[in-house]
Design goal:
Number of helices: 13
Helix content: 25-40%
CATH topology of the largest domain: CBS-domain
Radius of gyration: 19 Å
Structural class: alpha/beta
Oligomer: single chain
Shape: flat
CATH superfamily of the largest domain: CBS-domain
């Protein structure tokens, strides 16, 4: 089985403390990332990790040291990818800094392990790892209601249902970018200049941050205006290898799951797919 050293991202991009929220935002946008290790400027020591969702949940804070997660879980390069998968699934985290002799040498994410699951042709199915407690949205709900609900529920995605309870879309935290996103004042609050939308990473990062700066989301903006229509889905009998391939090819972090009668029965996330490497479910 492969080791962490074989699949990790070497020499990861980091953000330093002392530093600001906007330092992290700019790096994430420019480098097409959704999270960063945080190191101390004086000696390069790993002291935390920050994600776009950490900023979203603590947007009134401007100091990076007050936003970042300080309880860091790490792994060493000689560990196996199965050991990394065990940590991802048990702790429900998305970034695992790789440390060697106390020094940050890399980082690994669930996405880095998807190719291994695709190749292994696991017998495990979507139903084996199904997350049935998913938060749904109604297509006619105003975003002014749904965005706070997404933040409070701490979910990155919501399946969207119509009047008949049918799945008609999916709303992710990358789909909240409103037309006013080019407002120069809003960009200034985030420490960005106009023209940022040309950068590859803006869609991964900016929607949450733009929405967070708004005092009030216009009532006319509905879920159906922001959702992705006819989203890619899987069935409960779909193998985790096939689900991993869909996620990898389309850069998806989650997939709605259909039951025998085409009804929505839950969601699976990239972390859930990693159970194929662990070989068992928790508990």
């Amino acid at each position: 089985m492969k080791t962490i050293a074989e699949v990790m991202m070497h020499l990861p991009i980091v953000v330093e403390v002392p530093g600001s929220r906007n330092d992290a935002i700019n790096l994430m946008v420019r480098e097409k990332l959704t999270g960063l290790p945080v190191v101390r400027a004086s000696d390069g020591k790993l002291v935390g990790i920050v994600s776009r969702r950490d900023v979203f949940k603590n947007f009134k804070e401007s100091q990076l040291s007050l936003i970042m997660k300080k309880d860091i879980i790490t792994i060493t390069p000689d560990k196996t990818i199965a050991e990394a998968a065990e940590i991802f699934t048990s702790k429900r985290i998305h970034r695992l800094p790789v440390v060697d002799d106390g020094k940050l040498v890399g980082i690994i994410t669930p996405t880095d392990l998807l190719d291994e699951i695709i190749a292994m042709k696991t017998p495990m199915k979507a139903e084996d790892v199904l997350n049935v407690k998913c938060v749904t949205a109604y297509e006619k709900d105003p975003l002014s209601y749904t965005v706070p609900a997404m933040r409070i529920s701490d979910v990155p995605a919501m399946p969207v249902l119509n009047d008949d309870g049918e799945l008609v879309g999916i709303l992710t935290d990358r789909d909240l970018f409103l037309d006013q996103g080019k407002d120069s004042e809003a960009l200034s609050k985030l420490g960005l200049d106009e023209g940022y939308e040309k950068l590859a990473g803006y869609r991964n990062v900016m929607p949450l941050f733009y929405v967070a700066t708004q005092k009030e989301i216009p009532k006319e903006y509905l879920v159906e205006d922001a959702m992705v229509r006819d989203p890619a889905t899987v069935y409960k009998k779909t193998s985790l290898s096939d689900a991993a391939k869909i996620m990898k090819v389309n850069d998806f972090g989650q997939l709605p799951v259909h039951g025998n009668n085409d009804e929505l029965i839950g969601m699976i996330y990239d972390i859930d797919v990693l159970y194929a490497l662990v070989g068992k479910l928790d508990g």
